[in-house]
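Figure 6 in text form: structure in, sequence out.
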């Protein structure tokens, strides 16, 4: 098994991501509970230049995906699996660009696949997840641009400028990757690069990619306001708590690979093993910058008060952690145990699948609300109820992530709006003809017996204010089938509105 993957590591990535996709489909019958994936879909309905929160590279990719793929749970999780595969192939390419040994890179890739950002968190396709895939390739292009001594250096410089720009268009937080790389070029043994065309080509391409968005930001303050809010105004004690939590993030996001590396790839006492894995790799300062730069710069921004830390920001920072750690492995232990770690995936992959069945069973018999929430069934019921009674098609549904969920699962095309159509934000295209269209105002769906009277009353008042007819309907739906042994009914009130 090791011989097969050592000669074809991309095959390892493909098999792992396929098994991972099946694992996620078994364990999770719904989209993520935070609504991030529905939000990405909502943004993907148009080629938006920006939003009130994030830049739009991921929604652009999602839009392209759904031009050819169906809007289903399996499809969107397959997109997550593709994103994971791109991330792992990026780590593979980065390790090779850093001239690390083939065994080193494959073991680092395998251990990294067991870190939570790649194992259990990559399914939620949001702005952290897209950084998982684009950051390694951005780093790869930088390494190639600063190490190649041929005509291809200019190509890689342009690729770095492009990928750095796309990183910023994925999440503004990507600055913590780009700034350390920029600083690296000013080290004494790297400054010579500024006497070549390489950095100037990269900067020119980067500006060409990001300038349109920068100009858009200057004209739309929503995203800037959201970014300012990230600084927060929490008391010092709470800020210190978040900083301490982020400092330890590598330990609770990457415990499995660090434990395995400590047990099988270094020797000595517990403290000496930790010290060996953590030391700066010899003759590879750039690897240290890639592994530690984003983490340390994020902490610096928090200490000086520029941001209020959010632990999920640590999800993409560890793309080079395992390359860094395995660079410090004992060569003899790496040769002895490295192939065994790779071969262990013949057992790890079945464990992943069995674990997903266990997780789904536990959720099914514990009345887990997020597991039982009938997202697709509610959306289909709301749309088909209207379609069987009216000739006028539904054109829109509001507001927010709930509307996006209905639009995603709707059997007929319907646009999810971030707000009611009379108050759309500046970043979103206007709906000039909304008074002559039929739409849905959706109220939060909860377990049977919940009260949504305020939402319903506000929706009907909005319709009356704008001279529209309205009708309130509450759907009560429970999921059924072998995956859902308990009956857990959910209510979803909606208010249909249409012209008189």
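Output sequence:
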């Amino acid at each position: 098994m090791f011989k097969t993957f050592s000669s074809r590591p991309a095959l390892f990535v493909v098999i792992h991501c396929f098994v991972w996709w099946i694992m996620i489909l078994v364990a999770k019958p719904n989209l993520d509970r935070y609504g991030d994936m529905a939000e990405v879909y909502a943004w993907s309905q148009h080629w938006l230049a920006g939003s009130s929160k994030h830049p739009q590279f991921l929604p652009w990719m999602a839009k392209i995906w759904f031009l050819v793929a169906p809007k289903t749970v399996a499809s969107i999780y397959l997109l997550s699996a593709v994103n994971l595969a791109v991330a792992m192939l990026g780590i593979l390419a980065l390790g090779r660009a850093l001239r690390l040994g083939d065994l080193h890179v494959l073991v680092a890739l395998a251990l990294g696949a067991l870190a939570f950002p790649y194992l259990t968190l990559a399914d939620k396709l949001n702005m952290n997840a897209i950084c998982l895939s684009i950051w390694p390739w951005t780093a790869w292009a930088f390494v190639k641009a600063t190490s190649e001594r041929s005509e291809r250096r200019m190509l890689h410089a342009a690729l770095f400028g492009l990928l750095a720009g796309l990183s910023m268009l994925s999440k503004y937080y990507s600055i913590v990757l780009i700034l350390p790389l920029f600083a690296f070029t000013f080290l004494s043994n790297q400054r010579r690069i500024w006497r070549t065309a390489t950095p100037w080509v990269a900067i020119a391409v980067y500006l060409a990619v990001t300038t349109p968005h920068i100009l858009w930001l200057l004209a739309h303050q929503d995203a800037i306001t959201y970014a300012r809010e990230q600084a927060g105004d929490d008391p010092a004690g709470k800020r210190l708590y978040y900083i301490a939590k982020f400092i330890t993030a590598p330990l609770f996001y990457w415990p499995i690979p660090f434990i395995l590396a400590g047990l099988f790839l270094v020797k000595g006492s517990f403290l000496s093993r930790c010290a060996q894995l953590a030391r700066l790799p010899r003759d590879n300062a750039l690897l240290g910058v890639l592994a530690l730069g984003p983490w340390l710069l994020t902490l610096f921004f928090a200490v000086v008060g520029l941001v209020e830390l959010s632990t999920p920001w640590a999800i993409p920072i560890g793309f080079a952690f395992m390359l860094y750690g395995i660079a410090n492995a004992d060569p003899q232990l790496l040769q002895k145990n490295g192939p065994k770690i790779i071969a262990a995936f013949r057992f790890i992959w079945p464990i992943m699948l069995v674990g997903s069945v266990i997780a789904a069973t536990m959720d099914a018999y514990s009345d887990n609300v997020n597991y039982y929430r009938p997202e697709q069934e509610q959306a289909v019921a709301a749309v088909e109820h209207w379609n069987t009674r009216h000739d006028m098609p539904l054109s829109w549904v509001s507001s927010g992530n709930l509307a996006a969920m209905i639009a995603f699962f709707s059997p007929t095309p319907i646009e999810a709006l971030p707000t009611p159509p009379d108050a759309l934000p500046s970043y979103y295209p206007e709906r000039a003809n909304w008074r002559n269209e039929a739409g849905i105002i959706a109220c939060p769906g909860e377990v049977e017996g919940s009260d949504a009277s305020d939402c319903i009353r506000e929706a009907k008042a909005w319709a009356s204010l704008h001279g529209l007819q309205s009708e309130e309907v509450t759907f009560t739906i429970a999921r059924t089938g072998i995956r859902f042994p308990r009956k857990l009914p959910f209510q979803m009130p909606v208010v249909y509105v249409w012209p008189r």
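Caption detail: Residues 370-499 form one domain.
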